[in-house]
Write a structure and sequence with these properties.
The structure holds two protein chains of two kinds.
Chain A: E1 9-17, H1 24-33, E2 39-40, E3 53-54, H2 68-71, H3 76-92, H4 99-102, E4 104-109, H5 115-127, H6 137-141, H7 145-154, E5 160-163, H8 169-182, E6 188-195, H9 200-209, E7 232-240, H10 241-246, E8 253-262, H11 273-286, E9 295-297, H12 306-318, E10 326-328, H13 331-334, H14 341-355, E11 357-358, E12 381-382, E13 387-394, E14 398-406, H15 407-412
Parallel strand pairs in A: 4-5, 4-6, 9-10, 9-13
Antiparallel strand pairs in A: 1-7, 1-8, 2-3, 6-7, 8-14, 11-12, 13-14
Chain B: H1 4-17, H2 37-51, H3 57-62, H4 66-80
Helix pairs in contact in B: 1-2, 1-4
Classes of the chains: A alpha/beta, B mainly alpha.
């Protein structure tokens, strides 16, 4: 049987704005130095909340990025996405005109959409007894707004949409973009995630779910008390490899596989079988053996339930090799950015491979026998990483895992 | 022994979990009732609403039975100055 060569897809641009910085250099410096962006919440009054800590993007001034007229159209989550997309495209050196515009896609992951806009609408109606709300409330709130704004500003004419699968949104978006390019439906894709969940109503709703930590996020550690909410956006430029090599683009790494599954079990409780099946599917899609994997950027939320379940799922997939894996949860530093989480973590994974440095799991107090893998506690570690996974598992049992290989590997491999 | 508080808690469990009230007693465990983490959230929400109190996150994680819940509730109500038998 003749094997038809598959198109290979590499990452040639990264843009990011996160609680750790307003660009890639700042974000990555914080990750490798173990600096956490978790602090007291400043954008929302928390006196009436049981938790007071979050991972916010500090010092973001929209007027420095957008003219007055444009700001009216943009909720905070769309502002983040546009800033990240501009950076990613500038980093890649690409521009979009003619046929290239039609062969470029934009796929964002965003779960909640314009939360601060929605909150303002409700405050106006129910608290201030107003009889009218801002006329752009609907287009600001829609979770697909970021994808639309990116396509409009950059003149991108290909497939453009948003994926909303709670905490797996960005991984689903990046994975779909990868498959779209591999299947020759486009040559370039801007893919990632964005989220800005800090509104009083949203924080109250998270409080009611009782999964938010009162202090900080301690993934896989004894004494962990839950998630810390985060915000931000990260956008990757995915590009067909031959095209990228020909134009001499910088290659951050290769996206090699994508795996999805559903737990079909519970609306909030984490599963084991579902995540394990998603990791296996990603490995199979990439053509990797489990023993090849060096590092996993874990979903690692820091809840009582997720971390032991993810540990068991990893053990189920990797068997004895699980002991050799380095695993870390960068949510300990950038918080849980929900629909953007997978994108922030894809950036962490790609940079870890590029620089040979594993970002640590911070705020780690003491080993938990139920989470007994090597989670790189509290201090970054030098390591040569060739093959990696990035896990995202969402409420409702929606699991999405991406497999990467290093840029060196991508460049040196023969094209079939 | 049962009192008004216990009776009220049992009524609230029967209502939120939609189980016959006569199947419930103070030593019934959440496991027997198949109360999972989301059911527990719903139940505590109903209790907070009924008594107009706040139940801490740590309490929710530690309660495993009707008796646990009632005892925690008794302490919270005492601390908040609400009479134990004020439940209607």
């Amino acid at each position: 049987m003749i094997k038809i060569p598959q198109r290979r897809i590499v990452v040639t641009g990264i843009g990011i704005i996160s609680p750790l910085g307003h660009n890639l250099a700042e974000h990555w410096s914080a990750l490798k130095e173990g600096r956490s962006g978790i602090a007291r919440i400043t954008t929302v009054e928390t006196a009436a909340l049981r938790f007071h800590h979050g991972a916010e993007v500090h010092g973001f001034q929209p007027e420095k990025h957008f003219p007055d007229g444009q700001i009216d159209f943009l909720d905070r989550f769309a502002q983040f996405a546009l800033v990240a997309a501009r950076q990613a495209v500038a980093d890649s050196g690409l521009s979009f005109s003619g046929q290239a515009a039609e062969r470029t896609a934009v796929i964002t992951g965003c779960s909640g959409g314009g939360q601060s806009t929605e909150d303002a609408v409700f405050v106006a109606l129910y608290a201030k007894n107003a009889n009218r709300v801002h006329p752009l409330s609907i287009p600001r709130v829609m979770a697909s707004a970021a994808a639309s704004h990116i396509s409009m500003e950059l003149g991108i004419l290909g497939p453009t949409y948003n994926v909303s699968t709670a905490c797996s949104s960005a991984n689903h978006a990046i994975g779909q973009a990868f498959w779209l390019l591999r299947n020759n439906q486009a040559d370039v894709a801007l893919a990632g995630g964005t989220e800005a969940p800090f509104s009083f109503g949203m924080l109250k709703a998270w409080e009611a779910l009782r999964v938010v930590s009162p202090d900080t996020c301690r993934p896989f550690s004894k004494g962990r008390q839950g998630i810390v909410l985060g915000e931000g956006a990260a956008i990757l430029v995915l590009e067909e490899k031959e095209r990228a090599v020909q134009r001499g683009a910088r290659i951050y790494g290769e996206v090699t596989g994508f795996g999805m599954s559903s737990d079909a079990r519970h609306l909030t409780a984490p599963g084991i079988e579902g995540p394990a099946r998603a990791m296996k599917a990603a490995l199979q899609d990439a053509g990797f053996h489990p023993e090849q994997i060096d590092y996993i950027n874990a979903h690692g939320t820091g809840t009582a339930g997720n971390d032991p379940a993810e540990t068991m799922a990893i053990r189920q997939v990797f068997g004895p090799h699980a002991e050799k894996l380095a695993i870390s949860s960068t949510k300990s530093m950038h918080g849980h950015a929900l629909g953007a989480a997978g994108a922030l973590e894809a950036v962490a994974t790609l940079m870890a491979m590029n620089e040979g440095i594993i970002p640590p799991t911070m705020n780690f107090l003491e080993s938990d026998p139920e989470c007994d893998l090597d989670v790189v506690p509290n201090q970054a570690r030098k390591a040569s990483l060739e093959y990696t996974l990035s896990n995202s598992f969402a409420f409702g049992g929606l699991n999405a895992v991406i497999a990467f290989q290093s840029g060196d590997k991508a460049r040196s491999c023969m094209p079939w | 022994m049962s009192d008004n508080l216990t009776e009220t808690v049992l009524d609230l469990i029967a209502g939120t979990k939609r189980v016959p009230r006569e199947n419930l007693e103070i030593d019934t465990t959440f496991e027997q009732l198949e109360i999972d983490s989301l059911d527990a959230l719903n139940l505590v929400y109903a209790i907070e609403d009924h008594f107009n109190i706040a139940v801490p996150d740590s309490t929710i994680r530690s309660i495993k039975s009707v008796r646990d819940l009632t005892e925690h509730l008794r302490q919270i109500l005492a601390a908040s100055g609400t009479a134990q038998n004020s439940a209607s």
